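A quick word before the example. In earlier lectures we treated sequence and structure as two separate objects. From today on, think of them as two lines of the same record. Here is NADPH-dependent FMN reductase-like domain-containing protein written that way.
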Amino acid sequence: MNITVINGTEKHGVTYRLKEMFLADFSDNANITEYYLPKDCPAFCAGCTNCILKGEQKCKDAEYIRKIEKSLLEADLIVMTSPAYVFHATGAMKALLDHFAYRWIPHRPAPEMFGKRAVIITQCLGSGAKSAAKDMKHSLSWWGISKIEIFTGALMSDIVWEKLPQKKQAELAGKLQKLSRKFAHIDYTKPAHTNLITKFKFFFCRMMQKSIHRSDPEYLDGKYWAEQGWLADSRPWK
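And the structure line, produced from the sequence above:
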């Protein structure tokens, strides 16, 4: 199987440790590709909308984005990690997700995404982990992914792994191992179930795209939906 990991920071701190614990059960039987931000996507989205209006190849940062997207599309499992910075995912993670606006369901979602599974790993000192995870889940769900699991490690004593009490380290390790084994035993030859919320988003956007395509057959998003057969009877899930 293929796993693509997007790390929201280059720092090898607590979030990194948690991610390594999760991946431990996959190390012998999976091809794991990792990206570290901002190193692997050092540029901010400029809001030029070229990706939406002219095609993703017109993005000024296409050399970074196309490489990461290829890994995401080939992955059986997507793992996103980020510590909570002021109640949100890191700025580097947000900068990457902004680049994928064209892959949201209202535009040109990739059919492969609808059958994928994803895991989000985040942690913080005190509160904020849930809102940080929500930043990442929001994009994943609008890419078409229904099966998304979230691990939030709320720390109360310190954010340096070596300074955490042994009891807390063991607690986090136990929870990550349980989550890891759950995903390690999935049959990835079968696509994940597409839930009703995702289908509702799709059908709402389908109505919008049908209207746009009738009025402007050359509009990029509408043409894409028509080519996929989604304006007729085809659907991106099985």
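Notice the following. The chain has one domain: 2-194. We will return to this example when we discuss secondary structure assignment.
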